[in-house]
Write a structure and sequence with these properties.
about 475 residues; alpha/beta; seven-stranded mixed beta sheet; binds zinc ion; TIM Barrel; single chain; five-stranded parallel beta sheet; Urease, subunit C, domain 1
Length: about 475
């Protein structure tokens, strides 16, 4: 879409996802270029933008696209994996038997198809922004560009990083550091060029010092238990020099804590803090086995923590104490850890797990909405230096339309109930990202999904043999 073209999404229930969870019945959204310019009643918006291209969303639900704050597209070709995988009795065995074998087998062509196929699944489920953590420990150089290529083609909004680790030796570690730096510098120079070429609009001035809001980079680190002191120091220093955050798995399993204490006398978050890994642009995924002191460190440093309940239950690693971390002021968001492409599924589980875990039916009723809808907006807006995740004037235009005809009123204040008990990813019909229609009436407009899925299936069969 050109800078000045206008698109209206008209009619239906429009959920703004503001603090009050406002729902406009018979509302409309006006998009100019890549931003929301106005929201309001359908009649008012239609009269102000007479003649604009219009998507008819009558009787449907219109809401901002969803944000996945921690995922792994490299695992997309592992679904239904048929390979000789030993049964695992612990989290570290799951990594050794499955995920580390997969990431060592991935070629750059596998990485490209995995990202392309994963992107299709995300878009179909209404996700418009992802923060991805990539691993392909033999084919490292250029791997982030191999992820970015199909994502750019699909139109998704993304932040990427490569998983630095000492687990495969010094060569892979150094290549991992170099790949993060290469990609972050490439992103920075591309964004400067985009800003120079921009015709204006909020956040797009060449002197604003901000990115273009659509793509970005972080410095990726696997986890404390596969990282030596020197590597943590180099990675955190590099992130500071590049002006980006770190993205790491923290205290996902008790084995991470035991390793950290035995090698440093510090618990995981304390060890990360000592090397400068924490900070407002850094993401610590999981944080299940953290104590009060570590929770305070996460809150004081402004570090983003991402909760991934389905993956945690699947790996039997425990449950993060989300209510207490939120109460301590930690900015906590929601991700899928690659377990599913549907943030709707993840929200349902986030709603249930804390109640189940605490044995207290008063706990957890607002966790899903707070993490996924409110806090993921804050996280994405911080990492992309722009306004993402709300339907309000000036925000980047990521909008989804769902075929949702509820048997009860959908109104301001009760969106959480519809989210948990009504909505699913399969209701998503139309997806707009950055003002572009990426999926219309369930048909992807930017890529040939049938061709990608067919090639991915062929590639997956070959990949499984190489594992
Ligand atoms: Zn992860």
């Amino acid at each position: 879409m050109s800078a000045g073209s206008t698109l209206l999404v008209r009619g239906g229930h429009v959920a703004l996802l503001d603090d009050e969870l406002t729902v406009l019945n018979d509302g409309a959204v006006a998009i100019v270029g890549n931003r929301v310019e106005a929201v309001g009643s359908a009649a008012d918006i239609a009269s102000r933008y007479d003649g604009a291209e219009t998507i008819d969303a009558s009787g449907k639900l219109v809401m901002p696209g969803l944000i996945n704050a921690h995922t792994h597209l490299y695992s997309a070709l592992a679904r239904g994996l048929v390979a000789d995988i030993e049964p695992s009795s612990s989290f570290t065995e799951i990594l050794e038997h499955l995920w580390w074998r997969l990431d060592r087998a991935l070629t750059l062509d596998d990485v490209r198809l995995s990202a392309a196929a994963g992107a299709i699944d995300l878009i179909r489920n209404g996700t418009t922004t992802i923060i991805d953590h990539h691993a392909s420990q033999v084919h490292i150089d250029g791997s982030l560009s191999a992820v970015a290529e199909p994502l750019n083609e699909s139109g998704l909004r993304f932040n990427l990083c490569f998983e630095i680790s000492d687990r495969d030796g010094e060569g892979a570690r150094d290549a991992g550091l170099a790949e993060n730096e290469r990609f972050a510098r490439l992103e920075a120079s591309r964004q400067v060029a985009t800003r120079r070429g921009s015709t204006g609009g909020p956040g797009s001035s060449p002197d604003s010092g901000r990115g273009d809001g659509r793509t970005g980079a972080s410095v990726g680190l696997h986890a404390s238990f596969t990282l030596d002191d020197g590597t943590l120091e180099r990675a955190a220093g590099m992130a500071a020099d590049l002006g980006v955050g770190c993205h790491i798995h923290a205290a996902e399993d008790v084995a991470d804590v035991e390793d950290s204490v035995s090698r440093s006398g510090k618990r995981v978050v304390e060890r990360l803090e000592a090397f400068g890994v924490l900070g407002p642009r850094s993401i610590a995924a999981h944080c299940i086995h953290v104590n009060e002191r570590e929770t305070a460190l996460l809150a004081e440093s402004g570090t983003i923590v991402v909760h991934n309940p389905q993956s945690n239950m699947n790996n039997a690693v425990g449950c993060a104490d989300v209510p207490s971390m939120l109460g301590s002021g930690v900015l906590m968001g929601l991700g899928t850890d690659g377990f599913t492409a549907s943030m709707f599924d993840e929200m349902k589980v986030a709603n249930l797990i804390h109640r189940h875990q605490s044995g207290d039916p008063r706990v957890g009723h607002d966790v899903a909405a707070r993490l996924c809808l409110m806090n993921n907006q804050t996280i994405a807006s911080r990492l992309f230096d722009d306004r993402i995740g709300r339907l309000e004037p000036g925000a980047l235009a990521d909008v989804i339309v769902l075929d949702y005809d509820p048997p009860t009123p959908l109104q301001t204040g009760n969106f959480g109930g519809h989210l948990i008990f009504g909505l699913t990813g399969w209701m998503v019909e139309t997806v707009i990202i950055d003002g572009r229609v990426i999926m219309r009436d369930r048909e992807l407009t930017t890529v040939d999904s049938g061709d990608i899925q067919a090639r991915a299936r062929e590639r997956a069969r070959d990949l499984w043999k190489r594992m």
